[in-house]
Every structure is written in C-alpha cells, then in structure tokens.
User: What shape does this take?
Amino acid sequence: MNYNLSNLKELEAEAIHIIREVAAEFENPVMLYSIGKDSSVMVRLAEKAFAPGKVPFPLMHIDSKWKFKEMVEFRDHYAKENNWDLIVEYNKEGFEQGIGPFTHGSKVHTDVMKTQALLAALDKYGFDAAFGGARRDEEKSRAKERIFSFRNEFHQWDPKNQRPELWSIYNTKVHKGESIRVFPISNWTELDIWNYIRLENIPIVPLYFAKKRPIVNWNGALILVDDDRMPKDIAEKAEMQMVRFRTLGCYPLTGAVESEATTIEEIVEEMMTVTVSERTTRVIDFDQDGSMEEKKKEGYF
Amino acid sequence: MTKNIDIQQFLDADQKKGLLRILTAGSVDDGKSTLIGRLLFDSKKLYDDQLATLERDSKRIGHAGEDIDYALLLDGLKAEREQGITIDVAYRYFSTNKRKFIIADTPGHEQYTRNMVTGASTASLAIILIDARKGVITQTKRHTFLVSLLGIKHVVVAVNKMDLKDYSQEVFNSIVEEYKNFSSTLDIPDIHYFPISALKGDNVVDESKNMPWYKGRTLLSFLENVQVSSDRNFDDMRYPVQIVNRPNIHFRGFAATVASGIVRQGAEVMSIPSGQKSRIKEIVTYDGNLDEAFPPQSVTITLEDEIDASRGDMFVYPDNVPTISQKLEAMLVWMDEKEMDKEMQFFIKHANNSTRAFVTHIDYRVDVNTLEQSNIDHFKLNDIGKVQITTNKPLFFDPYKKNKITGSFILIDPITNNTAAVGMIIGKSKDADSRTITAKGRLHKVANTEEAQNKYQELKLKGRTVVRLDKAALKSKFTELPNEEVTKGFVELLLGEGVDVVK
Assistant: This one.
C-alpha cells in the first residue's frame, strides 16, 4: 500500500478539514456563493465534508443585479436540483436608484452593489463566519491572506495585524459583531480548480466555454451584450464572436477572451499557453495600483 | 482529438504529482525574493501580463538596477513595496512536471521571528539563504535554530551571490564548513549545500557554466526529487474527532483528519478519555467507503457499538496510546505584541480540543542568536523558551518530534482573542504525577471596596476563578463577619484549589 496522497487529494483533505472546523466552532456560518467555478468547487467540498449528511449551513449569493443572465439561471437550477439552502440578497436601495456600471462607473457600482450589499447581508443575518472561494495565487495581495482571516465589527481587514496561523490549528475566537472570513481553497491554483472540476464532473456556468456571442469592444474589454440595459450606442456595435469567460461577475465589468475552447481540456490547453493572467479580464482591478488590497480592507473579498 | 488526449494525460499526471511545502528564510539583502522569482520564472509559470506589470514597476521603484527585479513580483502589499521589504508570510505556487510546490516566503528580520515560525509550521523543507560575501552570520544561525525547533527535517543551504565572489570554490567550501560546524548541535538530519546566483540564474534551474567545480544537482532538480514522505508518522494511529456527523438516527459518524498512523476498517479502537472500545465498522467518504485511511486524509468513521465520543476526543489503538495529562512541558514561541501576563488563563487549542491553560513556570528563555539560555519571568514578542503548562482538563498528546499534529498547540488571549503563543510539546511535566493538578491560586490584597471590585473584574476577564473575601463582600453574605482564623483557613483552602482570592 502506497501512503502518498496526490496533490489534489491533499488539497481536498485540507479544504474538508477547514470547512468542518468552521461548522464545529462557529454558531452561524455561511458560504458565500458567487456562481463562479471556484464557488462550484467549494460547494462540492462542503458536500464532501458532511457526507452522507447535508451541508449544515446556508449558501448566500450577493446579487449585484448585473450578473450574466446565464449565471442566475445556473444558480437557480442547481440550487433547486441539489436542494441547497440558498439565500439571495441584493442592495434594494442601490437597485431602485438604478446604480449600475454604465451610469455610475465600476468603482461606485462595485462599492454599492457588491461590497455594501455583502456587508448589509452579513449584518442582517449576523453571520459570524463566511466562506469565500478566493485563492492565494489569484492576485498579489491575496498571497498573504490567512485561511481564517479576521474582520473587525466593521468587516474590515487589517493586513498588518493578522493572526499568526500555524500547522492546521485555526484560531476561531471572535467577539460579538466580529467575524472571520474563511478561504478553504487558499492553496489551490487555477489549474487545480480546472482539474478538479474535470475529475469530479462539477457543473459550471456555460459561459466558461467558448461559443459565438454578441460582443462589443468597450473600454478595451470584450463585453457581452447580455440585456437591453447596455446603452444603445454601445450595444449596436455588437458582433458575433467566438469567446469564453475566464472569470464571471457583472457582465459590463467582465471581459471575454477570444477562444475556441469548448471543453475543459481545451481550456487548460489554452491556459498553458496564456498571455493574460486570470484576473486581468476583470475591469475592477485596474482602478489603481494595489486596488484589490484597498477593496479587501473595505470588506470586499 | 490527439491533442485533447495529450492534455488529458497531462491533467491526469498533474493531479497525481506530490506536493512539497517549502519555507524560504533569508533577508531582503540575501536575494531571497529574487531566488523565488527565479524559480517561478524559470519554471515557466509566470503569466505574461504579470511580467508586464513587473517591468513597469521595476522602472518606478525597482532596486536591481538594470536587471528585472524579481522581488517585485512577490511583494504583494502596497506599504511594504514602498519600504522595499517583505513584512509577512506570503505563499507562492509553482509546479514542474515532477512536483507541485508551495513556498512560504517569510522575512528574515529579527522582529519577524513570528512570521518565520508561522511559515515553518507547515513546511517539509527549508531553504536557508546565505550571502556568499557575508558567510554564516547571526541571522543564518537564528533561521537554522528556528527550522530545527519547528521540526523541519530537510534543509537546503543556498549560498547565493556567488557571482560577486568570482564563483570561488574556496569561498563556498569555507561557508559549508562553517555551517556544518555550528549546525551539528541542532537536530536536522538532512542538509544539502548549493552554490548559486539567483540573479544570474546559476545552479537554480539551469546548471552553472561558471562553476564547473560543482558536480551536484541544481537546486530545482533537488527540490523535485527529495524524498519527504517518510516525515509523516504512519506508526501511531491518532484520530482526533473534529465533528460528530449525525444526519439522521441511523448514522452516527466521527469525522476527522487522520493525524497519524493508519486507520483500518475492522480494527479495534479505543476512545480517549472514556476508554470505551469498539471496532471500526466503516470508513466513509463522499466517494465511497475505504479499507484504510492515512494522514492527511479527512474521512468519517462509524463504529460497531454506540460510543459516546465528541469533538476533541481521540480514537487510538488500545496498544498505542498518547500521553494523557493536564501538565505538560513545551517550547513556547511568543507571537503577540502584548507581553505575557503571568496571571492570564489562556485558551489552549490542541488537536481539536479546547480548554483553559496556565503557564505555570518558565524554565528558561533561549536567545535565538546565541542559543544561550537565561531566566526570565515573562515573555515578550518573539521570545522562545521552555515552559510548564497546566490545563483545566487532560490533553492527549505526543512529543512534537514524533507527531507534529498531536504535539502542537496555540494559546489564545481570552481578552483580545489574539493567538498569543504557539507551542511544541516535549512531554509530560516532570512533576505531573504529583498531587496538585491545578496551579495554586493567588492572594490579592486590596485596600478598599472599589479596589476589590476592580481586581475581581480584572481577574474574571483573564479567565481566572476568583472569590471575593473583602469586607464588603463578606458583609453582603454574612450577618456577622467570620473570625480571622476561619477566614485564614478558608483562604488557604481556596488557594490550594487554584482559586484566586481578593481580600
């Protein structure tokens, strides 16, 4: 008998350990569900952690109201099919005021419809721990984030004052109002995620695969014309292009890449010869140098 | 189609690769970030746009002159990029076609011993950088000591900046000699030496043309091939229950990550502390039942009999049990800016167990630079020393040297909730079997009611068991004050039971 665990199985075991630890130590945890591929992996890991039982905490999606239509359809379909305990929250006020990326820009939109909406939802339910699907290899400032990342009562992250994290012993103590963000797939790379999706047959939103779609070139990004809220003068320039999405978010803020990849194998093949790293197709990261770090301090994941 | 089959083969091979967790230790000046940047860069895992950012940043705040500053690629946080130093633990990922690597990149400054200890806790191998111009310096000794303290068995000594010493074999050999001399007293079984230039790329990924006298492997080739699996303990079965899984009345499973040893279906196990025995009925996972489970697998076991075990209890084989005690001795590293408060009753977290703990005695402090021992009465940030600890309930542990998971713990400050200290268990305290299990309480003399009230609150916050025996408190309970003799006897009794008295 060979007692070596493959790297993917080792990462899986580590994630299950982390997810169980949260269920054991916190009163009211939640799993933030973004509908993206990393979230899909995280949900599967949660199912594995408690099998044959049910996942003992809810999933929560913060709907910015500007997500791709296919994302919302996917979410509702799988939540129903798998009998997930799914909470969907959005910023009502912002929605009624018509806040959106076309009219208010990416910065205001992200702050109001994502960050503020998330913080309000966390307060509303009083969650003391929230799982996120962030990975350390995604972005520079994330390389230093702990797996159990402490947030003060204002949900803020202080990168200079993080709790030391040793072995697999996690400090889960918080005072009332404070919380912990937990990242069970911190140590996974993008390739690990794709390989796991492939081996486990995890369903993902079809937008990840290449298809002919109506695309406009807006501010240097390939943007999908997903609904009629896109200003007419932009939308009318749409052309059908064979594209896929490397990350998913708000459709006006998420650029597509030209691609012929219609299977996971082809995506990985493209990835191995990529010319852009994963998050560059997200418009929000370019706002300013170190901008993800600023957003994280404010409470964005 | 053929192409897809290739990718499938690639992916199948990729997921089966082993994972090696590495710690890198060295200061900014040793070129540590440059070395990591080189490993990442030359192993072709850098994406083009990250490189583009790098070139842009190099022009603005780079420190490497004309060459690309690999360090910039790694220093994630804004503040430290401006200061030009790495201030925290950062994790990096790269892979070759033989292995996957996670690098814990930690700074070398003295004030950040804390971070190095953190990075070392999960690493199987440490890369210690030495600047060829400086040789073995205080910092090298400190890093090596910490690596041995944290039980890392494989060390790579990378003598860097060989280009600045004319790639001299004599320089390299004398550094190796010096390092061997001082490290022989430390418990590191496997040490290897490499002459490199991270900046120029010599012997990192590609063999050096500048050092024909060096016949060994390149650094990366060594990292790809070094055997570390034997570091895991497959002998002493320890299954610390993390969560009890009871989805319905027909299923009662004990979920845990196997800490050590092999868990076998059908084997007789004993639950600690209850001592109840049963047999493993099934080893359950989402992907089907297993015949055996081994570290670090996370599984769920069911038993033949109804046994009442909960989180923190441990399943073991009856003929191989850990030490069970409320008193232990350990090497402690102080991690908190806040100095140690001797009265504080900390939370201790150990192998899914959580209880209260006192540091009852500090045997000595070790100077990380000279390894000299001295007496201190409390710890400050980055202090390391040997301590005696008493816990409120028994813990089930093994020496850290034998078992990292059942031999490690953290202490949490009950007021701030910070991780105040981390510990590596040596064993049961020498006096553990003596009569007094709890540490003696302390008598706090106060002048008036207000002081008594304040002291009482303060001690309560620290998690101590306190009784007020000042006049105001006694008056509220008794119509007639008890005589001095009685009170005195009562105080002695309470102190003996580990209760604090405010009088």
